[in-house]
Protein backbone atom coordinates (compact mmCIF):
# COMPACT_ATOMS: atom_id res chain seq x y z
CA UNK A 1 0.00 0.00 0.00
CA UNK A 2 1.51 3.28 -1.07
CA UNK A 3 -0.57 5.33 1.38
CA UNK A 4 0.68 3.46 4.45
CA UNK A 5 3.08 5.23 6.81
CA UNK A 6 5.14 4.04 9.78
CA UNK A 7 6.15 6.02 12.84
CA UNK A 8 8.42 4.74 15.63
CA UNK A 9 7.99 6.54 18.98
CA UNK A 10 9.68 6.58 22.37
CA UNK A 11 7.63 8.00 25.24
CA UNK A 12 9.28 9.29 28.42
CA UNK A 13 7.60 10.07 31.73
CA UNK A 14 5.44 8.08 34.13
CA UNK A 15 4.44 5.57 31.47
CA UNK A 16 5.18 2.20 33.08
CA UNK A 17 2.93 0.56 35.64
CA UNK A 18 -0.03 2.74 34.63
CA UNK A 19 -1.60 0.64 31.87
CA UNK A 20 0.02 2.63 29.08
CA UNK A 21 0.72 -0.42 26.89
CA UNK A 22 -2.77 -1.89 27.28
CA UNK A 23 -4.43 1.45 26.50
CA UNK A 24 -2.11 1.89 23.50
CA UNK A 25 -3.06 -1.54 22.19
CA UNK A 26 -6.78 -0.84 22.64
CA UNK A 27 -6.53 2.53 20.91
CA UNK A 28 -4.46 1.10 18.04
CA UNK A 29 -7.07 -1.57 17.41
CA UNK A 30 -9.82 1.06 17.58
CA UNK A 31 -8.24 3.34 14.97
CA UNK A 32 -7.01 0.44 12.84
CA UNK A 33 -3.23 0.71 12.98
CA UNK A 34 -0.78 -2.18 13.03
CA UNK A 35 2.38 -2.39 15.10
CA UNK A 36 3.55 -3.04 18.61
CA UNK A 37 4.31 -1.48 22.00
CA UNK A 38 6.71 -2.45 24.79
CA UNK A 39 8.34 -1.16 27.96
CA UNK A 40 12.03 -0.39 27.88
CA UNK A 41 14.37 -1.01 30.80
CA UNK A 42 15.17 2.72 31.05
CA UNK A 43 11.55 3.51 31.95
CA UNK A 44 10.37 4.62 28.52
CA UNK A 45 7.72 3.00 26.33
CA UNK A 46 8.59 2.24 22.70
CA UNK A 47 5.96 1.75 20.00
CA UNK A 48 5.64 1.37 16.24
CA UNK A 49 2.48 2.36 14.38
CA UNK A 50 1.72 1.53 10.74
CA UNK A 51 -1.38 2.50 8.82
CA UNK A 52 -3.05 5.43 7.14
CA UNK A 53 -1.42 8.80 7.83
CA UNK A 54 -4.46 10.03 9.77
CA UNK A 55 -4.67 6.91 11.95
CA UNK A 56 -0.93 6.94 12.69
CA UNK A 57 -1.05 10.64 13.58
CA UNK A 58 -4.01 9.92 15.87
CA UNK A 59 -1.87 7.34 17.70
CA UNK A 60 1.07 9.72 18.05
CA UNK A 61 -1.26 12.41 19.41
CA UNK A 62 -2.75 9.87 21.83
CA UNK A 63 0.75 8.91 23.05
CA UNK A 64 1.52 12.57 23.73
CA UNK A 65 -1.43 12.60 26.16
CA UNK A 66 -1.09 9.06 27.49
CA UNK A 67 -3.33 6.77 29.46
CA UNK A 68 -5.20 7.68 32.65
CA UNK A 69 -2.60 7.78 35.42
CA UNK A 70 0.33 8.37 33.11
CA UNK A 71 2.32 11.59 32.83
CA UNK A 72 4.03 11.99 29.48
CA UNK A 73 7.09 14.24 29.67
CA UNK A 74 8.33 13.90 26.09
CA UNK A 75 7.84 11.95 22.90
CA UNK A 76 10.54 11.24 20.33
CA UNK A 77 9.37 10.15 16.88
CA UNK A 78 11.02 8.84 13.74
CA UNK A 79 9.39 8.10 10.38
CA UNK A 80 10.42 4.77 8.88
CA UNK A 81 9.56 2.67 5.84
CA UNK A 82 6.45 0.54 6.45
CA UNK A 83 7.10 -3.18 6.95
CA UNK A 84 3.50 -4.35 6.39
CA UNK A 85 2.99 -5.50 9.97
CA UNK A 86 -0.18 -7.40 10.80
CA UNK A 87 -2.21 -6.78 13.92
CA UNK A 88 -1.06 -4.97 17.04
CA UNK A 89 0.71 -6.58 19.97
CA UNK A 90 2.31 -5.87 23.32
CA UNK A 91 5.89 -7.11 23.11
CA UNK A 92 8.10 -8.16 26.02
CA UNK A 93 10.70 -5.78 27.44
CA UNK A 94 14.00 -6.30 25.60
CA UNK A 95 16.60 -7.96 27.81
CA UNK A 96 19.62 -8.33 25.57
CA UNK A 97 19.09 -5.71 22.90
CA UNK A 98 19.85 -2.76 25.17
CA UNK A 99 23.29 -3.48 26.55
CA UNK A 100 26.00 -0.88 26.99
UniProtKB/TrEMBL annotation:
Domain Acylphosphatase-like, residue spans: 6-92
Keyword Membrane: no
Keywords tagged on the record: Hydrolase
Catalytic machinery residues: 21, 39
Region feature (Disordered): 66-100
InterPro entries reported for this sequence: Acylphosphatase, Acylphosphatase-like_dom, Acylphosphatase-like_dom_sf, Acylphosphatase_CS
Top-level enzyme category: hydrolase
EC number: 3.6.1.7
Signal peptide start and end residues: none
Pfam families named among the record's database cross-references: Acylphosphatase
Catalytic activity as recorded in UniProt: an acyl phosphate + H2O = a carboxylate + phosphate + H(+)
Family stated for the protein in its record: Belongs to the acylphosphatase family.
PANTHER family in alphabetical order: ACYLPHOSPHATASE
The protein's name: Acylphosphatase
Organism: Thermostichus vulcanus str. 'Rupite'
Amino acid sequence: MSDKVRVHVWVRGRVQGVGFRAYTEAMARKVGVQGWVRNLRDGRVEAVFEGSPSAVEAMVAWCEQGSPGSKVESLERRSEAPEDLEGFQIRPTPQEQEGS
